[in-house]
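Please, is this right?
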Amino acid sequence: MNPVKSFFLLFFLLLFGISHAQTFTAVKDAASVQKQITEASKAISTIQCDFTQEKSMSMLAEKAQSKGKFYFMRENKVRLEYQHPVKNLVVMNNGKMLISDEKKTTQTDTHRSKVFQQLNNIIIGSINGSLFNGSDFAPSFYENGTQLKVELKPVSKMLKNFLSTVVIVLEKKDFTASRIEMHEPSGDNTILHFSAKQINGKVAEELFTVK
């Protein structure tokens, strides 16, 4: 898989549970919801969970499924381990990134690439809530009894090359994400489900080492 797309499929590298299709209605006070998400994120210092990724592509008759583990440590440290069907690793640590598979390991500075820098901002912004009130996406908020749904339309031309829409479903009890949908201009899409969520548990600093 292209490293940029593989990196992007993370990101949003966020958080957990499994959501079911439910009816959502428009949120009346979006500003209040944005504030609640931002305040809730301040209590999160670490995250670890399992994830399942489903990729639908027009050239494939069946969905491609991957499984792995996700780790986050405040402020800007992210690790995503793809464990099945193939092993891949992406680590981001304060502007530096490592991408590794069974054949090679590549390390780079995200600030040297506008693409990588923007994608790094997306992942961190999903966790701390800044993604929903920044300038890169135009958000729309919806809700039901237990969940919030945020639909994000990219504003910049660069992001529009990768995405047509991002949908993030958050649990109202803690404002963590349970489902992420990434829709591409080509019609391909990726859906991430998160489970076995652990917030503020012990996570080894060494997991985020990038030289």
Observations:
- Residues 135 and 155 are 7 Å apart (CA to CA).
- The chain has one domain: 3-200.
- The first strand starts at residue 25 and ends at 26.
- Confidence is low (pLDDT under 50) at residues 11-21.
